[in-house]
Amino acid sequence: MPAPDPDALTNTGLSTRAVHGGTAPDPATGARITPIYQTASYVFEDVAHAQRLFNLDEFGQIYSRITNPTVQALEGKMAALDGGVGATAAASGHAAQFLALLPLMEAGDEIVSSRNLYGGSITQFGQSFKRLGWHATFVDPTDPENFRKRISPRTRAIFTESLSNPGGLMVDLEAIAAVAHDAGIPLIVDNTLATPALCRPFEWGADICVYSTTKFIAGHGNAIGGVIVDSGGFQWDERTPALTTPNAAYHGTNFREKFGALAYTVYGHAVGLRDFGPAMAPMTAFLTLTGAETLTLRMARHSENATEVATHLENHPAVAWVSYAGLASSQSFGLARKYLADGAGAVLTFGLKGGYEAGIKVVESCRLFSHLANVGDTRSLIIHPASTTHRQLSDEDRAAAGAGPDVVRLSVGIEDAADLIADLDQALAASP
Ligand SMILES: *Cc1c(COP(=O)(O)O)cnc(C)c1O
Question: N or C: which end of the chain has fewer CB within 10 A?
């Protein structure tokens, strides 16, 4: 749960943290690579030891739904990368979003959220969370004041993506954090597309980060997972009774009093994972740890290739517009220079003059780009959101999320840029 040996990484750079964060040699065997602890349960030393663990008087292993050493290594790496105090891994990015809100929300509580979210998140917040009594109000994030206007006495957090999927919009994190803190509520940032390699939201005032590690953190399209990282800086108050009043299941434990800055992370495991169960599998943690070691290298190459592809598309006669925060033509260019100094990431969208039909033809004509619903693979990926990921939304919500009928989304991989450009050129030549 807590980040292991945080002192060893003090003042180290991001690439060092990507390699070493959370992954000291295995204390049991000396194995240099964190083993896959493929076990459901752990033997207690004696009854007194078991009681200390169950009472949360000592951190240790009980059952892999709650903690697992391989998964904890990944939690430590993510906390090190973001500069947080602790992290909670989950079975998927969506599970992480659920667990991120669980400590904050009672039935009837609200969040104010950016409307520029991954399509699945809009559905999760707007439809499925609503059935739990958790209400989301969606606002245009380009003006931070829009969040302030919708905050009510029941609002428990502001939620936004840093760099949005699929629109390629970068939000003003520092200004949005200030709005949240004026209201005494935390800012939760989905930092999936930027990753800590390109943007560290805690440096701009955010309180909690969530990730779909399925994407760039694992990075190879081979494992579904999610992580929540806590900055440890937010002062929980009576508005979040789960963290600040006695918990009956733990003999009246008050998480804020007992765990201080780790209250939110301990709650995520001891209540969130224990009672709802979306734990990350050890094998997934192992694959994600391996991928994360090259995070900074991959994000630099993704950003370089995406810039080349975006520039080429911007000058292509079949293309009406390109949205990529790394292009000077982007409305996000100024914010990208501030928040994404090392690159604007892999994901970009472009509009085809030929509209919906042309979008379908292009995705079906690509050979190197794989036509699938994912981002953040080493391989280049392509999709037409209006007919796939954003299908379930209304026309209005689709347009608002940057997924209109003419839009094609790319996740530019780490292949040779010239080959990717040649593939897109032949696909565009084939489209009406
Ligand atoms: C994919 C994605 C999610 C959901 O993550 P899963 O791992 O697919 O559950 C959430 N937010 C963003 C920005 C994503 O790209």
Answer: C
Whether 228 contacts 191, CB under 8 Å: no
Q: Tell whether 120 and 191 lie within a shared domain.
A: yes
326: its two tokens: 């790394």
Q: Are residues 58 and 203 in the same domain?
A: yes
Lowest mean pLDDT among 111-115, 125-129, 355-359: 355-359
Whether residue 164 sits in one domain with residue 79: yes
Provide the CB-side half-sphere exposure for 360 (13 A, CA): 6
CATH number for position 385: 3.90.1150.10
Residue spans of alpha helices (H) in 268-369: 274-276, 282-292, 295-314, 333-339, 355-365
Q: Which atom of ligand 1 is nearest to the CA of 164?
A: 13
Based on the domain organization, do 286 and 302 belong to the same domain? no
CA of 161, closest atom in ligand 1: 13
Query: What is the rounded average pLDDT of the residues 409-429?
Result: 97
User: What mean pLDDT comes out for the span 4-13?
Assistant: 75
pLDDT at 144 over 80: yes
Q: Is the peptide bond before 166 cis (omega within 30 degrees of 0)?
A: yes
Q: Are residues 243 and 305 located together in one domain of the fold?
A: no
Domain of 246, in residue numbers: 12-292
Task: Report the range of poorest mean pLDDT among 26-30, 76-80, 106-110.
Answer: 26-30
Domain shared by 316 and 255, yes or no: no
Closest ligand 1 atom to the C-alpha of 375?
Answer: 15
Pocket lining for ligand 1, CB < 6 angstroms: 92-94, 118, 120-121, 161, 165, 190, 192-193, 212, 214-215, 224, 226, 375
If you write DSSP's letter for every residue of 239-270 in order, what string do you get?
T-HHHHS-BGGGTTB-HHHHHGGGHHHHHIII
- Domain end call among 292, 317, 335: 292
How confident is the model over 76-94, as pLDDT tens digits?
999 999 999 999 999 999 9
C-alpha–C-alpha distance, residues 369 and 12, integer Å: 36
Locate 79 and state its tokens.
């906390």
* Contact predicate 62/54, CB 8 Å: yes
Higher model confidence: residue 142 or residue 398? 142
